[in-house]
Amino acid sequence: MPPFVEMRDIVKIYPNGVVANRGVHFSVEKGEIHALVGENGAGKTTLMKILYGMEHPTAGQIFLEGRPVRIQNPHQAIDLGIGMVHQNFMLIPSFTIAQNIVLGQEPRRGRFIDFEAAARLTTELSQTYGLQVDPQARVEATPVGMRQRVEILKTLYRGANLLILDEPTAVLTPQETADLFRAVRRLVAEGKTVIFITHKLVEVKQIADRVTVMRHGEVTGEALRTADVSEADIAQLMVGRKVLFRIEKPPQQRGPAVAQVRDLSYISETGRPLLREVSFNVYAGEILGIAGVEGNGQTELAEVLSGLKPPTTGQALVNGRPVLGKGPRQVRQAGVAHIPEDRLTNGVALDASIADNLVVDRYFRPPFTRRGVMYPRLIRRHARDLMHRFDIRAASEESPVKSLSGGNMQKVIVAREFSSEPALLIAAQPTRGIDIGAAEFVRQQLVQKRNEGKAVLLISADLAEVMSLADRIAVMFKGRIVGIFQNGPDITEEELGLYMLGLKQQSPDEIETLQ
Amino acid sequence: MTLSQKQKQYLMEFFRILAVILIALALGFLITLLVSEEPVQAFKELLTGPLPKISWTEAGLKIRGINRFGNWLEDSITLILVGLAVAVVFRAKQFSLGAEGQIYLGALAAGIISLHTSAPAFIHITLALLAAAGAGFVWGLIPGILKAYVNADEIVSTLMLNVIAVQIYRLLLIQWLRNPDYGYIATDFFPETAVLPLVIPGTRVTIALFLTIIAVVATWFLMTRTPLGYEIRVVGDNLKFARYGGINTRRVIALSMAVSGILAGLAGAHLSMGILKQLTLNISFGIGFEGIVVALLARNDPKAVPLAGLFYGYLRTGAQIMERSSDVTREVVLIIQAIIIILITAERVLPLIQQWRMRRKLPQELSADHSEAAHVA
Predict the structure, then answer these.
(1) pLDDT at residue number B373
(2) Engineered SS bond to B92: which of A143, A207, B110, B256, CB 3.0-4.6 Å?
(3) What is the DSSP string of A289-352?
């Protein structure tokens, strides 16, 4: 019997000359959970976009149950029973869940949309597949995990037999991930087929029957049975070399408090309180990890502390100097460096050269500028030096940053922020979406800074990362710090998960003693 | 490696533009074929009109058409100055359309100094040029401040300020500056000490030519060798990144528009002190907007602005000559000119050709450049 989906000799060359897929062969059997893994830029998302009709292959063929098909656009893909759940949800926030699910194919009564039928259909679908949602709730008022279930139901409503899930666990808590996995198994039990894109190798072993590994646009491991391969094997296929999973962390040498944050609150322009009386210290020689489901104030915490947003109330001292309410330049001069969460928006100028990106915080100082004249030669030399030290792989220091892979782009930011010799380093989601090799490098650099006696504030949605790097862990929920823990073997993911979901909370006294 | 790659890029860009110009000219010729009795002759005027005709006669070397050649250079000087002005603001991603108004006020300021002060030539000219630059600076700073501090859309504000500038110019000209004895609205001719000295006899090409060369070098220096230039580039590439890096983005936005105004103001001085030698009711004929075309052709790169200005000036002058000396009407000439510009500024014309070539490349060949693409992927 032919495979359910088969993609043969797929080649994709973008107009700018980037080769995303070079002769990829990919096949999925009916009723399996097939993981597709690879580093960023390995070409896995491109391959799936081709299958979903969002991109057109330069060469190659697609077969559905042995029949050759041409998929020109997502509409055709949906007609063929292929559905895709994107990393960034495509839902209308102000609509109810039921409205979102039926959007575009609304049940009608006469000329009007039949909202009751929509809600009924939603309930039926949700029960069939064990995907709990509240049909009448507005999407904006629901947690991320539910939004994802809505996305999955949306594709099911459109008759998908093959579901492509693009990094579905990136935004979920451990509990939500467990729920999602249960739902995915149920889908398969109901006869669906699932392609699961991820870069978390633990999940591959947990959920998938088979795994296809991609690197540099090629398949390096084709449809391996997950029972037969180890995580280390998969990692090696992805990276092309052996990967260290454990980070060596010498015992902590904790110094005085470098940063002291007290009663920091921030109310957004739309009047929503996003930070509520946040207080903590970061000590020299420590990594303070901030854990929490995304959207609970972590982003704002980093932006307020680094001077990008003005605080509403509160105080923060860095080495005894007040930094709140100052602009980014003064904050930087007080010894703060910031790896921003949204690196494409804040962290780099994509069209500018690597060299120019590396001096945005120092271009006005000697040696780069003397008596009002800037010396591009020195800026380029500075860039070559940092590229060497931080292992940034690029054609040249004058290449635009947009030509780099995600990992190398992040290394540009890390190189700049680390080389400014900060007293306090704020690292927001420093390894998100970058490849294993680069993530490993960034983590080592963070630990290195801690060992040098700097203070590091690590904000990460990746709980495993926080637990492996941080000396203390603070959990944020709804803009508040609901718990602070000394990291150690007795701290478990499940325990932290309860705080992240707001189900547990320390008393103010407890929090104060661990500040 | 670095250099050769960069050179390759420039070469590619050069061939890209060359290819598109040829396509555009072919289209232009097709249109000429449709409307003209003598299309070859007409098109020849467009292509070669602005060049002086050099010939050997019994009497020796003879040059004809030097005035056409002069027209080309005069027009190019204005276009280059305005092109530089636009390139600076556009590089900061500020879509200021205020060059037109700045030209008028630059001409006005230069005119007032020329007519109402007296000084030895060098000082008189310097003062008038400074006045023009200052007027442009102020007229650029106003929308700059409005944009930076109260977020007034610069497209709207600069267009409105153009209206205000032109009307101030006309008001002062009609009420106060004009010589009522003339049958048309104009000032006296400027005194000798305030007229830019001639460089090429038989034309109106003055030392503005050298001033323009200085302006090109200065703008290039500003953009690549000063902190302000760096800030303008970073603000243009990514405003949020600039703010994150600690750049005072408001100051940079306001200054980018003001610096641009200086250059446009100088273009106004060139028009009044070099070309017209007096102030008349209409001096720019919309050339402030033509500067946008020049800046786009040059991809906002000051180094490339002179070439773009000379090219566009050539096209404009050739089109005028074609209109004057053939049966092709002005309207058709303008259409041909516009089509050429559309094609050249259409960024995706060449990528389309490249894509078509790539499709024909076989997958097997790709493995050859595997290592090269690895870091890009």
Answers:
(1) 38
(2) B256
(3) EEE--TTSSHHHHHHHHTTSS--SEEEEEETTEE-TTS-HHHHHHTTEEEE-SSIIIII--TTS
Do A329 and A354 touch, CB atoms closer than 8 A? no
Q: In terms of domains, do A381 and A471 share one?
A: yes
The answer to whether the CB atoms of B243 and A393 lie below 8 A apart is no
CB contact under 8 A, B233 and A352: yes
CA dihedral B179, B181, B184, B185 (to 10 degrees): 20
Same domain, A280 and A379: yes
CB contact under 8 A, B363 and A398: no
Residue B216: its H or E element: helix B208-225
Q: Is A15 part of any domain? A: yes
| Statement to judge: residues A149 and A170 lie in one domain | no
Structure confidence by residue, pLDDT tens digits, B92-129: 999 999 999 999 999 999 999 999 998 898 999 999 99
Range 195-254 of B in CB contact (< 8 A) with A: 224-227, 229-230, 233-234, 237-238, 240-248
What is the per-residue pLDDT for B376? 37
In DSSP terms, B280 is beta-bridged to B186
- Final residue before a domain boundary, out of A243, A259, A291: A243
Is B358's CB within 8 Å of A58's CB? yes
Residues of chain A with pLDDT under 50: none
Same domain, A377 and A316: yes
Residue of B nearest to A340 (CA): B244
Which residues of chain B lie closer than 8 angstroms to A387, CB-CB? none
CB contact at 8 A, A243 and A232: yes
How many domains does chain A contain in total?
Answer: 3
- A401 to chain B: nearest residue by CA? B376
Shortest CA gap A330–chain B (Å): 8
Predicted complex ipTM: 0.82
Architecture of domain B67-326: Orthogonal Bundle (1.10)
Does B61 reach chain A within 8 Å, measured CB to CB?
A: no
- Search chain B and give the residue with CA nearest A348: B241
A444 and A333 in a single domain? The answer is yes
Among A126, A160, A194, give the residue marking a domain's end: A160
The predicted-structure confidence for B307-349, as pLDDT tens digits, reads as follows 999 988 998 888 888 888 887 777 777 887 787 778 777 765 5
Amino acid residing at B269: A
Q: Is residue A262 part of a domain?
A: no
The domain containing residue A70 runs over which residues?
A: 1-81+166-243
Query: Which parts of chain B have pLDDT scores under 70?
Result: 1-6, 347-377
Contact A22 B363 (CB under 8 A): yes
Distance from CA of A346 to the nearest CA of B (A): 4
